[in-house]
């Protein structure tokens, strides 16, 4: 039996009372239960599929904007299933970003051929009309079987470059999501045990936290495989520019964001974040159950709003997934429970309590190390390439470099619109602080 379909009973003793189907959580976690749709079944949508299929060639030959201008404005009523709505979202997101970033300078106006159906599909899926993590990762892969943890079996469906580096970069996250799937039920059981004051709550929590630690370590092992088939220079100069959104992109040539033209003089300017692993519901789920507080200093939110970046980017997650995060937040956190363990009359914790505290600290240490790995990857794939000359297409180099405001790493901007390295280090440090239980 594949790891991602291990019954919940074997993890925490019973199923959580939370109805995970309501939150679109499957046996594969935040990934679909089945392989994503590879093609829209109705020939009516063939114009979209043809452009998506030839995207790398159209970009390389500077024909993407011409081809989009020839597209008809298609309706969405022929999409037959949720899988097809998701497929339409992936296709339109990729075409939109290829259109915006696939020239010598970014295009500020997205034409009605893309805008109108993209707005309808995005509304249906409760997502913004931009390339999100859901479009690039959750719904953009195929596999011969249903074990999505095996990287060698996975392949991407849509691509800007057609390179192995792009495919590997995206599929690493798919495998990570699949690897973390079973822990969702385990941790919900643990939170419910606290809430119900269940007998042997300490034992249930300790086991769950040890599982969580192992899960985070396994996910980190997959993240470390990024180096195997993703070339840093190819990623930085050829792939990364297309992942960018329109928020905080004035230096890249989008001072007002992108105008979504709905035709007949209608439309609106939108500033939206690009695709980012910060939009992974799984990683945020780890934070929530451990009680990691990311509210300090607006956590990389350059707009200075009250919500942290983590709360804001939930709007870039599928609606059911972000509702699960809200539901989990309302259940409380294990940190709060562990921090208030009561000492005995000698002023020390009992053996069971000590094991629980150690398990909690171990889980937060694993998450801190995971974030250290992420920082090392960002250094290798973004910081160092930003300082090195590129011998390829200079147009792509200029677009990649324009996502920074200086040569130093502290000025680099992530595709999600944050100040990259300071943000990642702050998130890592906040995880460390949670483990101190002070």
Automatic annotation (TrEMBL):
<dbReference type="InterPro" id="IPR000898">
    <property type="entry name" value="Indolamine_dOase"/>
</dbReference>
<feature type="region of interest" description="Disordered">
    <location>
        <begin position="391"/>
        <end position="420"/>
    </location>
</feature>
<dbReference type="GO" id="GO:0046872">
    <property type="term" value="F:metal ion binding"/>
</dbReference>
<feature type="compositionally biased region" description="Polar residues">
    <location>
        <begin position="397"/>
        <end position="413"/>
    </location>
</feature>
<keyword id="KW-0479">Metal-binding</keyword>
<keyword id="KW-0408">Iron</keyword>
<comment type="similarity">
    <text>Belongs to the indoleamine 2,3-dioxygenase family.</text>
</comment>
<protein>
    <submittedName>
        <fullName>Indoleamine 2,3-dioxygenase-like protein</fullName>
    </submittedName>
</protein>
<dbReference type="GO" id="GO:0034354">
    <property type="term" value="P:'de novo' NAD+ biosynthetic process from L-tryptophan"/>
</dbReference>
<dbReference type="GO" id="GO:0033754">
    <property type="term" value="F:indoleamine 2,3-dioxygenase activity"/>
</dbReference>
<keyword id="KW-0223">Dioxygenase</keyword>
<keyword id="KW-0349">Heme</keyword>
<dbReference type="InterPro" id="IPR037217">
    <property type="entry name" value="Trp/Indoleamine_2_3_dOase-like"/>
</dbReference>
<dbReference type="GO" id="GO:0020037">
    <property type="term" value="F:heme binding"/>
</dbReference>
<keyword id="KW-0560">Oxidoreductase</keyword>
<dbReference type="GO" id="GO:0019441">
    <property type="term" value="P:L-tryptophan catabolic process to kynurenine"/>
</dbReference>
<dbReference type="Pfam" id="PF01231">
    <property type="entry name" value="IDO"/>
</dbReference>
<feature type="binding site" description="proximal binding residue">
    <location>
        <position position="374"/>
    </location>
    <ligand>
        <name>heme b</name>
    </ligand>
</feature>
<dbReference type="GO" id="GO:0005737">
    <property type="term" value="C:cytoplasm"/>
</dbReference>
